[in-house]
Amino acid sequence: MIPLLTTNEQALSFGIQSIDRKFPGFKLGDFAVLYGHQSCKTLVFRLCVCCQLPKEGGGLASSTIYVDGGNTFNPYTISATAREFGLNPKTALEHVFISRAFTAYQLSAIILETLEDALKRYRSKLILVSDITSLFLDNDVPTNEALEIFSKMISRISDLAITRNIIVIATCLNDEHSRRRIILESLLLRKARTITKVTQIHGRLQLTIENHSFHEPLTTEILQNGTTLEKFVEA
Q1: Are 78 and 89 in contact (CB under 8 A)?
Q2: Using an 8 Å Cβ cutoff, are 111 and 129 in contact?
Q3: CA angle, corner 113, sides to 40 and 104, nearest 5?
Q4: Residue numbers of the chain with a pLDDT score lower than 50
Q5: CA neighbours within 13 Å on the CB side: how many for 19?
Q6: What is the pLDDT of residues 76-89, one digit of tens each?
Q7: Domain range 11-234, CATH architecture
Q8: d(Cα 206, Cα 200) in Å, to the nearest integer?
Q9: pTM of the full predicted structure?
Q10: Domain boundaries along the sequence of the chain
Q11: How many CA atoms does the CB half-sphere of 187 hold within 13 Å?
């Protein structure tokens, strides 16, 4: 049985009925990983907007810090999603604070050295780290060094989730099949409290969520009300 929220708990929902009626949401203190199908990017952009909604609407009434490790940020999707929820697109974008990294060293510096100061400045309750493993697949970064830095980095964001009482969600979107990718992904998933995987089965998107407080994984379809796969992914 999925645990229900108490009236005093804050949680972040996806704003998708088929998911939200089963999944109680990401809770403050969570370090979560969202990986699999490319629609993970769309789900993350929804979270950027849902985070700004009031508690009663499944949000945190908060801004978001978006650490872009894969050059994935799309302001048009944020704007479209804001309209869907009745928010002003310009205001919604102003409440997403972006920090871009183009190398593994830049990404680790953001997370290890500057992220906590940004939390204090913006008082955000959500950190999103996009495509967290991709920059560590660069052959210019020695494997042993990549694994050491990556391990320190995910330990840091996991600790921040707890000590700052926030939600940290990292996406893992690369399709490269290599030994290094497998090790990086294993380190990432091992550290996460909530693991969310998106798969496409027979043209339908399926979400599977594993959480330490669940007795068994939760699986549900993402799409509803006649929404096509293409429309969802391109939103």
Answers
A1: yes
A2: yes
A3: 50
A4: 1-7, 224-231, 234-235
A5: 21
A6: 999 999 999 999 99
A7: 3-Layer(aba) Sandwich (3.40)
A8: 6
A9: 0.89
A10: 11-234
A11: 19
